[in-house]
Amino acid sequence: MAAGDRHGLAIVLFTLFVSVTLAITAWAGRRRSSSVEFFAGGRLFTPMENGFAIAGDYMSAASFLGISGLIALFGYDGLLYSVGFLVAWLVVLMLVAELVRNCGRYTLADVLAARMRRRPVRIAAGTASVTVSILYLVAQMVGAGSLVGVLLGGSDSRTARTWTVVGVGALMMFYVAFGGMRATTWIQIVKTVLLIGGTVALTVLVLVRFHGDFGRLLHTAAANSGHGEAFLGPGLKYGGSWTSRLDFISLGLALVLGTAGLPHILSRFYTVPTARSARRSVVWAIGLIGVFYLMTIVLGFGAAALVGSAKVHDSNAAGNTAVPLLAEVLGGGSGTTGGAVLFAVVGAVAFATILAVVAGITLASSASVAHDLYATWRRRGPDAPGGPAAAQGEMEQGEVRVARFAAVGVGAVAIALSLLAQDQNVAFLVGLAFAVAASANLPALLYSLFWRRFTTRGAVWSVYGGLLPSLLLVALSPVVSGRPDALLPGVDFHVFPLENPGLVSVPLGILAGWLGTVTSREPADDAAYAEMEVRSLTGAGAA
Predict the structure, then answer these.
(1) 154 has a pLDDT exceeding 70
(2) pLDDT tier at 457 (50, 70, 90 boundaries)?
(3) Residue 492 DSSP class
(4) 350 near 60, Cβ under 8 Å?
(5) What is the largest CA-CA distance in the chain?
(6) How far apart are alpha carbons 282 and 286 in whole angstroms?
(7) Per-residue confidence (pLDDT) for residue 381, from 0 to 100
(8) What does the angle CA 437 – CA 438 – CA 439 come to, to the nearest 5 degrees?
(9) What is the predicted pLDDT for the residue at 155?
């Protein structure tokens, strides 16, 4: 099969998935656009449906393309991403899922505002949520550009990547603006089924190729990696110096703690009717995610063994195209019908993954803009006491309208940043988003849920004390300047040696929350904490 036929088949499959998702969006858009419908899908999803949607939100381009690519390039050191992403869900299940569902309505700021002064807390939490969402969006859209670049190939691949980023951005704006949470959830469910099915098929084909002998797979991967047996031990990416070792620790901290602070994951707990349903949703999600991340290990080492690390690097220096290249080899190789078909199918599944995830992230960020920032600016949020029912309804309709426009604005910013970061590994970019989430969102959330003395000043300081240092450290890191693969390769102003800021910014966020609380002249509201504690543990009064 000629390369043109392969490209044509990929485009047909892309078009088919986009058509299905647009139909879902049109169906969901026919429903009444109340705030609970737009932001939470009417709270009508079952635990299984929501579990599939949570898994779909989480199993992103970073998982399918980036992690496998890092394993194919760096072997053992790439495993950190698989382990970190999976272990993070234990933190979510044990500390966050049920309590967040009971205490909030649509966003993280709802939980913080339950016992604090609403205006400063909502502005801080809303700003942090939008920032994290944009960073996460950049990673997904870079993955889309890398994927289409290798599918279409040729001298115009850079142009194709650019237009792909713009197209994905336009689609995500449409999904959110017209379909809301209901459309986004069903798109996630369809995507999860496709992704799990495609990953299982590839994993089985890899294991069949090596007759089920995983040891043989590992040794073949080491032989074809160019690094020998060192490929199977630590140190290729994170062991060359003290800086890289600290980066290893920093990344692990960000991955394990960051999940519980991701806005688009937290918003998923509000789409089910009860806290018990939220907890069961996470159990479903852990099962799906656990199986998936185990399979990414097989795919990463399979790409190193069957494609070769050098070829993966030549196709995309960040490793983002390892899985599509592996699929082509498993189907029969370049120029064969089987190779072209499997290559196109995997490309379409990866593209579906990206579209679904960017829709979920965009919805979460637009909800923060409308429900937290806009409602605060209007000085009458939906939870403001004493307002007439008509005024409340008008305010909620205003939030929905603002959320639709916010989706467009967030999409435009994400497109612009994605065009600058096209040569970065998507799993690495997601690691930065996790670091910001772990630094800005998680400390304030845990303090609010578990510390009776926590005050409004502590909440605001905790958010900004994690958000601003993490962004500053990224800007001053070698990710932005000082290296050929940096965002700004022509200049060098980096002074912070680590690529991931989590090791420094997470403790700063925790420290800032404590310091703001102990220096606050405003005493903690014991009655509000007692009410929140009862509500979080029993569900009494939950929305």
Answers:
(1) no
(2) very high
(3) -
(4) no
(5) 73
(6) 6
(7) 42
(8) 90
(9) 39
Structure-token match 């003395």, residue found: 453
Amino acid at 334: S
Residues near 233 by beta carbon (within 8 Å), at least 6 away in sequence: 75, 76
Neighbours of 388 (CB within 10 A): 8
Residues 106, 112, 113, 115, Cα dihedral to 10°? 130
Cα distance between residue 465 and residue 505, in whole Å = 8
In this structure, how many other beta carbons lie within 10 angstroms of the beta carbon of residue 534?
Answer: 13
Is the torsion defined by CA of 158, 159, 165, 168 positive or negative?
negative
Which CA distances in Å does 151 have to 221, 226, 316, 351, 468? 24, 26, 12, 11, 38
CB 362 within 8 A of CB 135: no
Contact between 252 and 80 under an 8 Å Cβ cutoff? The reply is yes
Helix count (H) and strand count (E) of the chain? Answer: 24, 0
Question: How many Cβ atoms from other residues are within 10 Å of residue 541's Cβ?
Answer: 11
What's the mean per-residue pLDDT of the chain?
A: 82
The full DSSP string for 34-90 is -HHHHHHGGG---HHHHHHHHHHHHS-HIIIIIIHHHHHHHGGGGHHHHHHHHHHHH
The answer to whether 62 and 141 have CB atoms below 8 angstroms apart is: no
For residue 290, the one-letter residue type is G
Are 16 and 351 in contact by the 8 Å Cβ rule? The answer is no
**C-alpha separations of 401 from 185, 225, 370, 377, 395 in Å:** 20, 52, 8, 15, 10
Using alpha carbons, list the distances in angstroms from residue 461 to 73, 117, 454, 465, 510. Answer: 40, 13, 11, 5, 9
Q: How far is CA 242 from the centre of its chain?
A: 29
- Whether the CB-CB separation of 70 and 217 falls below 8 Å is answered with no
On the 0-12 / 13-18 / 19+ scale of CB atoms within 10 A, 265 is buried
With helix as H, strand as E and coil as C, how does 193-258 read?
Answer: HHHHHHHHHHHHHHHHHCCCCHHHHHHHHHHHHCCHHHHHCCCCCCCCCHHHHHHHHHHHHHHHHH
Angle between helices 426-440 and 242-258 (to 10 degrees): 70
d(CA 26, CA 162): 27
Cβ atoms of 64 and 350 closer than 8 Å: yes
User: Residue 468: its pLDDT value, please?
Assistant: 94
Exposure b/e, 462-497, CB count within 10 A at least 16 = b? bbbbbbbbbbebbebbbbbbbeeebbeeeeeebebe
